[in-house]
UniProtKB/TrEMBL annotation:
<feature type="transmembrane region" description="Helical">
    <location>
        <begin position="59"/>
        <end position="80"/>
    </location>
</feature>
<feature type="transmembrane region" description="Helical">
    <location>
        <begin position="145"/>
        <end position="163"/>
    </location>
</feature>
<feature type="transmembrane region" description="Helical">
    <location>
        <begin position="175"/>
        <end position="193"/>
    </location>
</feature>
<feature type="transmembrane region" description="Helical">
    <location>
        <begin position="266"/>
        <end position="282"/>
    </location>
</feature>
<feature type="transmembrane region" description="Helical">
    <location>
        <begin position="205"/>
        <end position="226"/>
    </location>
</feature>
<dbReference type="Pfam" id="PF00892">
    <property type="entry name" value="EamA"/>
</dbReference>
<feature type="transmembrane region" description="Helical">
    <location>
        <begin position="92"/>
        <end position="109"/>
    </location>
</feature>
<keyword id="KW-0472">Membrane</keyword>
<feature type="domain" description="EamA">
    <location>
        <begin position="3"/>
        <end position="132"/>
    </location>
</feature>
<keyword id="KW-0812">Transmembrane</keyword>
<dbReference type="InterPro" id="IPR000620">
    <property type="entry name" value="EamA_dom"/>
</dbReference>
<protein>
    <submittedName>
        <fullName>EamA family transporter</fullName>
    </submittedName>
</protein>
<feature type="transmembrane region" description="Helical">
    <location>
        <begin position="28"/>
        <end position="47"/>
    </location>
</feature>
<feature type="transmembrane region" description="Helical">
    <location>
        <begin position="116"/>
        <end position="133"/>
    </location>
</feature>
<dbReference type="InterPro" id="IPR037185">
    <property type="entry name" value="EmrE-like"/>
</dbReference>
<feature type="transmembrane region" description="Helical">
    <location>
        <begin position="238"/>
        <end position="260"/>
    </location>
</feature>
<keyword id="KW-1133">Transmembrane helix</keyword>
Length: 285
């Protein structure tokens, strides 16, 4: 269970770092670039994936390239959502992206439907409505925050769908992650060099250091989640629910207590519904 706790902590730490980035004068695009350098190196060293399957003709390169674009893109979107809508609402929107990915699993991948999952989907949709309502006090978010929350919701669901396509191809998830991280780093580095040469954003050492820390937290979330499943191989639904509910609850505590984020009654209702929805979906797994 300690792996699950560490995974939850790393996930929330990513949001905390994104919240702190503007206050530290961090160029978030540069930080996200170096994040993928750290994630690539750590994946290679700690997960030790076999890349043999990627030499086969059935390697899912369109999905892998899609991940290489979607992963840094959603990171930039999440950073904007955390800044404008706060950690509390952004973490809930991120975790409720499973509603869209679950719907895609029903429609595109033929996953069985049952009453628990349908009830979870219904409550989850209500949770999204509640969480998206802007709190009317300082720290609760900006008028534009809702569109970034919806972008987080849709973006993480897209990543889940791409990962599902990779899994169905038979490519090991560790190999897919390493390749996606490495491609994302190359693409982002090219963009940062272009910005640097054009004089729009000079490469700075403090962005490098912050990005490596962000990458360590991002990779830690993945590593400990994998380890949690390995430690409890017969309890995938428990790990799934514990991870998502843990992030929602810890993110709410950190956002309110550490950053003074304000939440409305609708936000708190949405948070509660999100916890119940995730539990129902896990029950139906």
């Amino acid at each position: 269970m300690h792996f699950l706790i560490l995974s939850v902590a790393c996930s929330v730490l990513v949001s905390v770092l994104l919240k702190l980035a503007p206050r530290r004068g961090i160029d978030i695009a540069q930080a996200v670039t170096w994040n993928y350098l750290a994630a690539s190196v750590l994946s290679l060293l700690l997960l030790r994936p076999s890349l043999q399957s990627l030499h086969a003709g059935q390697a899912p390169w369109p999905a892998l390239l899609g991940l290489a674009l979607a992963l840094p893109g959603i990171f930039l979107v999440l950073a904007r959502a955390v800044r404008e809508a706060g950690i509390v609402r952004s973490d809930v929107a991120q975790r409720l992206s499973l509603l869209l990915s679950l719907t895609a699993a029903f429609v595109l991948f033929g996953e069985p439907v049952n009453g628990w999952k349908l009830a979870g989907l219904a409550l989850g949709l209500l949770a999204i409505v509640g969480v998206s309502v802007r709190a009317g006090a300082p720290g609760g978010g900006t008028p534009g925050g809702t569109r970034w929350l919806l972008a987080v919701w849709a973006g993480f669901a897209l990543i889940d769908i791409l990962l599902k396509q990779v899994a169905l191809s038979g490519t090991p998830s560790t190999a897919a992650l390493l390749v996606s991280f490495a491609l994302a780093f190359v693409l982002m580095l090219g963009w940062q060099l272009q910005r640097h040469l054009a004089g729009r954003s000079r490469l700075r050492a403090h962005n490098l250091g912050f990005g490596l820390l962000l990458g360590a937290a991002n990779f830690g979330n993945i590593l400990f989640y994998v380890r949690a499943h390995q430690a409890l191989p017969h309890s995938p639904a428990t790990i799934f629910a514990g991870m998502n509910i843990g992030v929602v609850c810890l993110g709410a505590l950190v956002g309110v207590l550490a950053f003074g984020e304000r939440t409305s009654r609708w936000n708190r209702l949405g948070l509660g519904l999100a916890v119940v929805a995730i539990a129902l979906i896990a029950r139906g797994a």
